[in-house]
Amino acid sequence: MSAAEFHFACHRCGHCCRVGHGRVWLADGDLEAMAQLRGTTVEAFARDAVLRTEGRLSLRERADGGCILLEGGDCCTVYEARPEQCRTFPYWDALLEDPARLAEAAAYCPGIQRFPDAATVAAVLPRAAALVDAAAAPEGANGGDLQERADPGERWGCSLEVDLCLARGRDVYPAAERAPGLRLALERLAAESGYPWSYGPWPRLFDERATGWRARGDWPLPPKP
């Protein structure tokens, strides 16, 4: 597994700062930089936010696993001076070398877009197309359960829909949220086939997957405008 096999764009959601338990190790100069940014002394900052364990300094975490420096769920109070470990996520050797661990990270980080190999695309997209087309068919023709939302709002879609849209060269605009059971069917298909699953606001998801496919260079995308 290499970094070229996924695309990352930080959403500033704070999920990586409050998932599970672990260590955020500090390097030389981190204490001083973070204390200065917080407007306090090194001693006071260390007392409140740092612990020594395994012979090293680490940021403290709350009982739920969230970083002690996270405020309001998605605001890092030392973002400009955050440790290198935070700056380099998800480009960690442990994630780049282990597809299973990368998949775990992608499950909580919406900014990680993973991509299937050519064989998986060839095997799965036709099945996804059949599900979407059946949902969009006229009433009485193999389904016909696609329904327009009363309030358009922000449309959400999934990786299978976006990739299907790119493969067809036309918009299949997100059907999974408008057809009862379709999203569950697509998610089940992704799970059983190993197709990387992601779900999010359609415009952003579309842009990030298109950018990722272009970076890979192995998808017949239309020219970038």
Characterization of this structure:
The chain is α+β, with helices and mostly antiparallel strands. The protein folds into two domains: 3-98, no CATH class; 115-216, no CATH class. The chain is 40% helix and 11% strand. It has nine helices and eight strands. Strands 1-6 form a two-stranded antiparallel ribbon. Helix 1 packs across helix 2 and helix 6 (118-136) packs antiparallel against helix 8. The radius of gyration is 21 Å and the shape is elongated. The mean pLDDT is 86.
Provide a brief overview of the structure.
With 225 residues, the chain is of the alpha+beta class. The protein is built from 9 helices and 8 strands. The chain has a two-stranded antiparallel ribbon. Strands 2-3 form a two-stranded antiparallel ribbon. A two-stranded antiparallel sheet has the order 4-5.
